[in-house]
Structure to design on (75 residues):
């Protein structure tokens, strides 16, 4: 299912970026541009990030760097 129609980003892609360390909508936008055009998908991205307890979320809460090199591979 598409999350961002502007850039054709799917729910699976957002979850993949989250699993690789993107734990905020801004970090998702950095990885794949989702949420940077009309903005209508930002709430959906927030919901996706809040649902799954991605292991890197704890690192972000501790103030540690969580952006992985894999995020450079924007979908």
């Amino acid at each position: 299912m598409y999350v961002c129609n502007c850039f054709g980003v799917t729910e699976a892609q957002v979850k993949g970026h989250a699993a690789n360390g993107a734990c905020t909508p801004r970090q998702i936008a950095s990885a794949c541009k989702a949420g940077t055009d009309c903005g209508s998908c930002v709430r959906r991205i927030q919901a996706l990030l809040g649902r799954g307890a991605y292991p890197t979320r704890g690192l972000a809460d501790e103030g540690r760097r969580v952006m992985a090199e894999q995020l450079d591979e924007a979908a």
